[in-house]
Amino acid sequence: MEQVDVLVIGSGFGGSTAAALLAAEGSSVALVEAAAEWGGSAGKFQRKDFRFPVGATLGMGYERDGIHDKINRRLGIEIEKRPLHTVMNVAIADRVYPYYQNREQFLRMWDAKLPHAAPAIRSFYREVWHIAGLLRRHMVHFPVVPPATFQEAEALLKGFHPAVLRCIPLLQKPLGYVIQKHGLQHEEDFMHFLNGVLLDSMQTEADACSALLGCTALDIYHRGAWYIEGGLYRQIEALVQSCKSNGGTVKKGRRIVGIARSESGLWEAEDHKGGRWQAANVVLNTTAEDAASLLPAEDRAKLSGRLRRKAVAQFQWGAFTMYLALKDTLTEKTPLFHQFLVNPDKQAEAGNHFFVSISAAADSHRAPAGYRTVTVSTHINPDDWKDKTAYDQYAAAIKKAVLAKLETVFPGFTDEAVHMFTAGPLAWQHYTRRTGGKVGGFPQTPDNALYRAISHRSGITGLWLCGDNIFPGAGSIGASSSGVHCARSITGRQPV
């Protein structure tokens, strides 16, 4: 049996961040991953000469004092990246709205596209960006809401400014409140634009999204959006290597089948190959539902009430993903990221709304010269995919709709495909070990966000939680922040 201070289960952004920071702080750490690749939903797979990022592809938080920048500077990690001046093209039917990183260029785009609504759009974004700027003063210190220790209170107070008090009335408001304040709720294309961006980043649309988190999400692209050479799996692999370099044990292909307290008070875990681990602290980088399933019944009853309730009752999206490798027929100026809403009169899911990530022409980490790889993802309701016949029909319909749209935007593009793979919720469940293939985190509505989110404290001494189900929520930045919270709570020190 291997004995360590901390056993980290799962190597997504939360787990790999926690493991790397704990090892750098001097803890003995074991990082155990069930899959054959690191990263979970941010991992990769390879087919011959082509490498495909599994899920997340667009990098945020790499600007100076961004979340990933702060973590990477603490650990001495360098990531190959390039800034995106056009973050993505957002297509609503046949109308394209470029999402420019530069704020003034972005506002001028709206001036040209929707001149009758331009003054209201400008005032809306000025308020959104101001609120986000106030919140960022807190974010850089990795606060926890509500704070439970001196270190957490200190982190929260460090970002305090009297102007932050204006955010308090928005704590339980949806972003729809701010939209209506500026009279934009009936501006259809603008609402479709906001809905698509927030569905991808916050897992819910604008009317329902937490106002404070929605402002942060709409601001962050303008602080810096990045193309990561190879994909975000390279950030994960750098964190894993940092953990290893600081004396940590890292093992892939080891699925933990159960954890329990021993008579000595230490946690004991067993993997599916019979390996056994003992640790004073366990960090679970899993969904809330899967975290509970690893524990014996008597320990599940000790978990926090919020964790137990949301583990079984809270809706989460699934994903249907397509992976293509094809000859490069694109121009140099083609944006690398695209979001499509094919029919604005239908729901933004299941092939009608999807996100496209294209590898850069010179990115040899993903494709050989003259080729590119493409990842396409769309939100689905995993409950609709439980029947085998329905599963196959949904998959075929989404694939057909996506390819048809891509052909209209990039004629001849998909004809050049040398590889094409698809992954529905069963594939996501198999490779990421997330029950039902639920990915992306909880919808960040006021009922799930901020002080109503699941804490990284499980309610059981020595058992910690991180990942996209845990405060502060969805996305690589949120998941990494939860890993920082675990490291700080375990060591009693601010690790970043």
From TrEMBL:
<dbReference type="InterPro" id="IPR002937">
    <property type="entry name" value="Amino_oxidase"/>
</dbReference>
<dbReference type="InterPro" id="IPR036188">
    <property type="entry name" value="FAD/NAD-bd_sf"/>
</dbReference>
<dbReference type="InterPro" id="IPR045892">
    <property type="entry name" value="CrtISO-like"/>
</dbReference>
<dbReference type="Pfam" id="PF01593">
    <property type="entry name" value="Amino_oxidase"/>
</dbReference>
<protein>
    <submittedName>
        <fullName>Phytoene desaturase family protein</fullName>
    </submittedName>
</protein>
<feature type="domain" description="Amine oxidase">
    <location>
        <begin position="17"/>
        <end position="490"/>
    </location>
</feature>
